[in-house]
Amino acid sequence: MNTNSSDFSNFTESACTRCGDCFHYCPELKLPREEARREIKRLIRSSKTKYVLQYCTTCFSCNLICPNDCKPYQLILERWNELYRKRGAPSIYRFVCPSLEGNIWEILYQLMPSDEKKLIQKWMKQEKKESILLISSYLHLFPFVFSNSSLLEHFTPVDIIDHWECGGYLYQGGYLDVVHKIAERTKEDFKDWNVKTVIPTLDAVEWMLNDVHPSEMGIKHDVEIINFHSWLLSKIESKSIVLNRQLGISVTLHDNCFSKVGGGKYWENPRKLIDLLGCRLIEMRHIQKYSLCCGFGAGASWTQHFRIVFDILYCSKKKFEEAEATGAQGLVTYCGGCLYLLWAARELLRSKIEVFHLVELVRLGMGEKIEYPQKHIERAWDIIAIINYHVILSLFRRNFWINQIKLKEFQSKTHSYFSVIIIRKLFSFSPIRLIYARLFKILLPIMKTQRSKLYSIK
Ligand code: SF4
Ligand code: SF4
User: What residues form DSSP beta bridges with 131?
Assistant: First the structure.
C-alpha cells in the first residue's frame, strides 16, 4: 500500500455544502457561523486555518454533527498528517512514543514499586493463550486497577506498549502513515501468538482493530475482536461474574473522545454497568455526542511546547467544573488514557471529586478490594514529575519523525533518569505539591493560552 497521506482520507468533499455546522456546533470551538464556513473552506483547500488545526481537541464530535455524514474530522486528520510529514512531531511527543528512549512507560518503570513491576513484566512476557485481554498502554500506567482481580482469570492479560494502543492515539493526532505500520505489526503479532479472541480494555482499540485497520488501512485481522464492556455485561448477565454489592453512590460519567466513533454505540454499555452497580448517574452538561475532552486531546493540536501543558489543563478544568457542578461523588471514566490525565489534573486543580476507572467500580461491586485512592494520587505525581522533565527537555529538542515503531526490549535501558527521580522526590512533600498546584492556578490565567483567546471570540 502506498502510504501517501491522500490515501487515508474518507472525507466526502462532494457532499459537503460548506454549511459550517461542524465547527459552529463543535463543543470546543463553537465558531461563529461565518468563521466556521471559512474554516471548512480553508481545510478543503489545504490552506492555513485560524482555529481548527490549532485548537481541535480530537473529540470526533464534528463527524456526528455533520448533517451529510461527510466526516470532517477525517479531513482534519489528513491535514495534520500533511503537517506531520512536513515538520515532524513536536519533541514533547516523545513522551508517548514507546519505541523512543525516555517515554513515559520506561521512566515510570523506574518509579514503580516492585509488585507493580513484576505484574507488568508478567503481562508483557507471558505465553498467550487462545483468548487475550489487551491491557491498554495507558492502563499499563495503573496496573493496580486490575491487579489481584478475579476478572483476569477469564483470559491472558497481555500488555504490549509498542502496539501504541493499536495506533489509537496516533490516529487521533493524524499520524496516519505510522498507524498503517502499526496495523501491519499487530496483524503479524496476532498470527504469531496464535490467538483466537482479542478483548481490548479500550473501546478505542476495539474500534481501531475492527474498523480503522480494515477500512482505512486495508488490514483485516483474522481474530475475533470483542468489546470489553459488552463482554463484561454478558458475563454479568450469565452470572459468570457476580455483582454482590450495590455501591449506592452518585457518579457522573465521562464519555471519552473515542466513544463517539461508530455513531455512539459505546455510550450505552458503561451506563448499563453503572446502573447494575447500584450507582446513581447524574449526567454532565456535555455528554455523548457533545462530550468535552478530558484535556488529553488538546495535546494533539500542539503549537508551542511549554504552553501545551496549560492548554491541556484549560480543557481539564472545564471537565472538572462540569463534573463538580453535578454534585456527584465520583467522576467515572471508561478510558485508561483519560484516567491518567484526569488524575494528574485532579491533583493540580485540587478537586475533591473522586475519580474512578469503571473497572474499579465493577470490582467493588464484585466485592473485591481495590487500592484507592492513595495509589492513584501517588501515580498522578509520578506522571506530573515525568511531564515536567519532558517539558524542560522539549525546550532544547527539535521535532522528529517516528521511524521505528517496535521497541527493542522493554526496560533494558540503563538510563536511570536521575533528574526525574529528584523531581519526584520533591513531589513527595505535601507543601511542595500544594505550592506547585497553587503556582499552576496562578499561571493558568496569566499564561493566557491560545485556547483562552479562542473563548474570547464567542
Ligand atoms: S463537513 Fe458537513 S457540517 Fe461541515 S461544512 Fe461540510 S456539510 Fe457542513
Ligand atoms: S474533532 Fe471535536 S474539537 Fe475537533 S473540530 Fe471536530 S468537533 Fe471540534
Answer: 197
